[in-house]
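From the shared-data thread, chain only:
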Amino acid sequence: MSLKTGILASVVALSPIAADATPVLALPNFEKIVVFEATSGVVAFDILADDLTREDDPLITPDFTTGASGELYDVYTSDADGAFDANGRFVTVSTVFNNSGGGGGNVTAVDLFWGNGMKERASILSASAAFGNGSFPNSALFAVDGNETTNTTLGSTTGDQNDDGERLFVTVGFNATTAVVPLPAAGWMLIAALAGLLGVRRSRRV
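Structure, as C-alpha coordinates:
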Protein backbone atom coordinates (compact mmCIF):
# COMPACT_ATOMS: atom_id res chain seq x y z
CA MET A 1 0.00 0.00 0.00
CA SER A 2 1.28 3.47 -0.80
CA LEU A 3 0.51 6.47 1.38
CA LYS A 4 1.78 9.68 -0.15
CA THR A 5 -0.18 12.46 1.45
CA GLY A 6 2.44 15.17 1.87
CA ILE A 7 1.04 18.68 1.67
CA LEU A 8 3.74 19.76 -0.76
CA ALA A 9 1.46 21.36 -3.33
CA SER A 10 0.61 19.59 -6.56
CA VAL A 11 -0.55 21.16 -9.78
CA VAL A 12 -2.45 17.97 -10.44
CA ALA A 13 -4.50 18.58 -7.32
CA LEU A 14 -5.37 22.02 -8.62
CA SER A 15 -6.03 21.02 -12.24
CA PRO A 16 -7.52 17.55 -12.81
CA ILE A 17 -5.97 15.39 -15.52
CA ALA A 18 -7.83 15.68 -18.80
CA ALA A 19 -9.93 12.70 -19.81
CA ASP A 20 -7.93 12.34 -23.04
CA ALA A 21 -4.53 12.40 -21.30
CA THR A 22 -2.03 9.97 -22.85
CA PRO A 23 0.12 7.41 -21.00
CA VAL A 24 3.85 8.09 -21.31
CA LEU A 25 4.62 4.90 -23.22
CA ALA A 26 1.64 5.40 -25.56
CA LEU A 27 2.95 8.71 -26.90
CA PRO A 28 3.58 8.49 -30.66
CA ASN A 29 7.32 8.19 -31.38
CA PHE A 30 8.22 8.01 -27.67
CA GLU A 31 11.96 7.40 -27.40
CA LYS A 32 13.21 7.78 -23.83
CA ILE A 33 13.17 9.60 -20.51
CA VAL A 34 16.32 11.45 -19.51
CA VAL A 35 16.98 12.10 -15.82
CA PHE A 36 19.49 14.80 -14.90
CA GLU A 37 21.22 14.12 -11.56
CA ALA A 38 23.61 16.47 -9.77
CA THR A 39 25.68 14.34 -7.38
CA SER A 40 28.82 14.38 -9.55
CA GLY A 41 27.98 17.42 -11.61
CA VAL A 42 24.85 17.44 -13.74
CA VAL A 43 24.85 14.06 -15.50
CA ALA A 44 22.16 12.84 -17.93
CA PHE A 45 20.95 9.23 -17.59
CA ASP A 46 18.91 7.74 -20.45
CA ILE A 47 15.97 5.53 -19.40
CA LEU A 48 14.48 3.53 -22.28
CA ALA A 49 10.96 2.11 -22.47
CA ASP A 50 11.91 -1.37 -21.24
CA ASP A 51 13.27 0.06 -18.00
CA LEU A 52 10.19 2.21 -17.44
CA THR A 53 7.76 -0.69 -17.55
CA ARG A 54 8.64 -2.15 -14.17
CA GLU A 55 9.33 -0.97 -10.63
CA ASP A 56 12.62 -2.55 -9.62
CA ASP A 57 14.34 -2.76 -6.29
CA PRO A 58 17.18 -0.29 -6.82
CA LEU A 59 19.30 -2.26 -4.33
CA ILE A 60 19.25 -5.19 -6.77
CA THR A 61 18.71 -3.81 -10.28
CA PRO A 62 19.15 -0.02 -10.30
CA ASP A 63 18.45 1.89 -13.49
CA PHE A 64 21.46 4.06 -12.74
CA THR A 65 23.93 4.88 -10.00
CA THR A 66 25.89 8.02 -9.14
CA GLY A 67 29.32 8.88 -7.82
CA ALA A 68 28.03 8.69 -4.25
CA SER A 69 28.38 5.36 -2.49
CA GLY A 70 25.03 3.72 -1.86
CA GLU A 71 22.96 6.06 -4.09
CA LEU A 72 20.90 3.88 -6.45
CA TYR A 73 18.00 4.95 -8.67
CA ASP A 74 14.93 3.36 -10.21
CA VAL A 75 12.76 5.15 -12.80
CA TYR A 76 9.29 3.99 -13.87
CA THR A 77 5.93 5.14 -15.19
CA SER A 78 3.41 5.71 -12.43
CA ASP A 79 0.15 7.23 -11.32
CA ALA A 80 0.05 10.73 -9.84
CA ASP A 81 0.93 9.36 -6.37
CA GLY A 82 4.06 7.55 -7.50
CA ALA A 83 2.64 4.00 -7.53
CA PHE A 84 3.89 1.92 -10.46
CA ASP A 85 1.50 1.90 -13.42
CA ALA A 86 2.51 0.47 -16.80
CA ASN A 87 -0.03 2.84 -18.36
CA GLY A 88 0.98 5.72 -16.14
CA ARG A 89 0.89 9.34 -17.22
CA PHE A 90 3.64 10.31 -14.79
CA VAL A 91 7.27 9.35 -14.22
CA THR A 92 8.64 8.55 -10.77
CA VAL A 93 12.35 8.84 -10.00
CA SER A 94 12.98 6.75 -6.89
CA THR A 95 16.21 6.27 -4.95
CA VAL A 96 17.79 4.63 -1.98
CA PHE A 97 20.75 6.36 -0.38
CA ASN A 98 22.30 4.29 2.38
CA ASN A 99 24.71 6.91 3.59
CA SER A 100 24.47 8.37 7.06
CA GLY A 101 25.74 11.70 5.74
CA GLY A 102 22.41 12.18 3.97
CA GLY A 103 21.58 14.75 1.35
CA GLY A 104 20.95 12.21 -1.42
CA GLY A 105 18.38 12.16 -4.20
CA ASN A 106 19.68 15.08 -6.25
CA VAL A 107 17.40 15.31 -9.29
CA THR A 108 17.88 18.40 -11.45
CA ALA A 109 15.37 17.81 -14.25
CA VAL A 110 13.47 15.10 -16.13
CA ASP A 111 13.03 15.29 -19.91
CA LEU A 112 10.77 13.33 -22.26
CA PHE A 113 12.18 12.71 -25.75
CA TRP A 114 10.40 11.78 -28.97
CA GLY A 115 12.13 9.96 -31.84
CA ASN A 116 11.80 13.03 -34.06
CA GLY A 117 14.10 15.04 -31.80
CA MET A 118 11.39 16.89 -29.91
CA LYS A 119 11.52 16.98 -26.12
CA GLU A 120 9.56 18.30 -23.15
CA ARG A 121 10.88 19.02 -19.67
CA ALA A 122 8.77 17.91 -16.71
CA SER A 123 6.98 20.92 -15.24
CA ILE A 124 4.47 19.28 -12.87
CA LEU A 125 5.33 18.02 -9.40
CA SER A 126 2.75 15.46 -8.34
CA ALA A 127 4.21 13.66 -5.32
CA SER A 128 7.43 13.34 -3.37
CA ALA A 129 9.10 11.72 -0.36
CA ALA A 130 11.97 13.37 1.49
CA PHE A 131 13.20 12.14 4.86
CA GLY A 132 16.26 11.12 6.85
CA ASN A 133 19.52 12.97 7.29
CA GLY A 134 20.01 16.03 5.15
CA SER A 135 16.48 16.06 3.73
CA PHE A 136 14.93 19.26 2.40
CA PRO A 137 11.31 18.44 1.43
CA ASN A 138 10.66 21.77 -0.31
CA SER A 139 13.56 21.07 -2.67
CA ALA A 140 11.33 18.58 -4.55
CA LEU A 141 10.08 21.61 -6.47
CA PHE A 142 13.52 21.96 -8.03
CA ALA A 143 12.88 18.84 -10.13
CA VAL A 144 10.33 20.79 -12.17
CA ASP A 145 11.51 24.40 -12.05
CA GLY A 146 13.29 24.18 -15.42
CA ASN A 147 16.58 25.34 -13.91
CA GLU A 148 19.57 23.02 -14.31
CA THR A 149 21.48 24.85 -11.57
CA THR A 150 19.03 23.66 -8.88
CA ASN A 151 18.37 20.14 -7.64
CA THR A 152 16.35 18.17 -5.13
CA THR A 153 17.92 17.10 -1.83
CA LEU A 154 15.68 14.30 -0.63
CA GLY A 155 17.73 12.89 2.24
CA SER A 156 18.81 9.39 3.27
CA THR A 157 17.28 5.93 3.58
CA THR A 158 19.82 4.76 6.15
CA GLY A 159 18.18 3.12 9.16
CA ASP A 160 14.58 2.12 9.79
CA GLN A 161 13.22 3.88 6.72
CA ASN A 162 15.12 1.60 4.36
CA ASP A 163 14.26 -1.49 6.45
CA ASP A 164 10.59 -0.60 5.92
CA GLY A 165 11.12 -0.47 2.15
CA GLU A 166 10.68 3.28 1.92
CA ARG A 167 12.19 5.19 -0.97
CA LEU A 168 13.07 8.80 -1.58
CA PHE A 169 11.27 9.90 -4.73
CA VAL A 170 9.78 12.59 -6.90
CA THR A 171 6.85 12.01 -9.24
CA VAL A 172 6.71 14.41 -12.16
CA GLY A 173 4.37 15.06 -15.06
CA PHE A 174 4.46 16.46 -18.57
CA ASN A 175 1.88 18.52 -20.40
CA ALA A 176 2.05 15.98 -23.24
CA THR A 177 0.80 13.18 -20.98
CA THR A 178 -1.45 14.98 -18.50
CA ALA A 179 -2.90 17.88 -20.50
CA VAL A 180 -2.47 19.97 -17.35
CA VAL A 181 -1.17 23.49 -17.85
CA PRO A 182 1.92 23.83 -15.63
CA LEU A 183 2.45 26.73 -13.26
CA PRO A 184 4.94 29.42 -14.23
CA ALA A 185 8.07 29.79 -12.11
CA ALA A 186 6.40 32.45 -9.95
CA GLY A 187 3.67 29.99 -9.10
CA TRP A 188 6.17 27.41 -7.89
CA MET A 189 7.86 30.03 -5.73
CA LEU A 190 4.51 30.87 -4.11
CA ILE A 191 3.80 27.18 -3.48
CA ALA A 192 7.23 26.71 -1.90
CA ALA A 193 6.61 29.67 0.38
CA LEU A 194 3.19 28.36 1.42
CA ALA A 195 4.58 24.89 2.05
CA GLY A 196 7.22 26.39 4.28
CA LEU A 197 4.62 28.31 6.26
CA LEU A 198 2.29 25.36 6.67
CA GLY A 199 4.99 22.79 7.37
CA VAL A 200 5.60 19.91 4.97
CA ARG A 201 4.61 16.40 5.95
CA ARG A 202 6.85 13.91 4.26
CA SER A 203 5.26 11.22 2.16
CA ARG A 204 5.91 7.59 2.97
CA ARG A 205 5.94 4.34 1.05
CA VAL A 206 5.09 1.31 3.14
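The CA atoms of residues 47 and 120 lie 15 Å apart.
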